[in-house]
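Sync notes, pocket subgroup
Present: LS, DG
LS reminded everyone that the earlier model was apo-only. Rerun requested with magnesium ion included. Inputs:
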Amino acid sequence: MVSIKNSREIELMKIAGKINYETHKLLQKHIKPGVTTKQLDTLAHDYITSQDATCSFLNYEGFPASICTSINEEVVHGIPSFKKLKNGDIISIDIGVNYKGYHSDSAWTYPVGKIDEEVSHLLKHTEAALYEGIKEVKAGVRLNNIGAAIEKYALAHNLGVVKELVGHGVGQKLHEDPDVPNYGKYNTGMILKAGMTIAIEPMLTSGTEKIYILDDDWTIITRDNKPAAHFEHTVLVTEDGYKILTGDE
Ligand code: MG
Ligand code: MG
């Protein structure tokens, strides 16, 4: 069932979103060669808990860390470890924040030091694809317009669209209805209503869209080992458009 949030719930989600954004900004300052993903995990955990919130991912279906850290060909759900970041890597950081029972979900892919041109193309256009999707959001519009816009933009920039993983409703649960695919046909799917909150999250690749899961049962990798990027915002549907809850306003 798709939930419509009332104004009290929206206020709580805005705070969850703000803490999420602040955590990204904090981690961004620490992303450099030599840093371990475990250090980033600890920083995120300490900041989120200092804000009277908890980490949505910690123990979620058994996930063993506070954030997901996915490097290079890892698409999503990478587990923080003592592995050090290297110059030329990219790292996708996915953060979930639970503030008084309401979740925000936001991911960004960051360059580590200097990255090559193909990878830079991937980051720039995956971020842009996210905003192409978000621009479609408005009460009365059909859900699949979001995925259609993302897919169209990704294909125009020669990027693979991961289809086995999708965005989702978010609120009292981290993952709620509806699914929000990163592909689809315009003017199909459910009609968006004001008060819905959804996580839009294109996962694009420099090569194939095919993925597999590692033996740790979490980390998802591209089949051709080419890099993948992941950008995600939690977005509120409004009568005249949208409000990004995990951004800087
Ligand atoms: Mg996420
Ligand atoms: Mg998500």
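DG: The first strand starts at residue 54 and ends at 55.
LS: The chain has one domain: 7-244.
Action: DG to write up.
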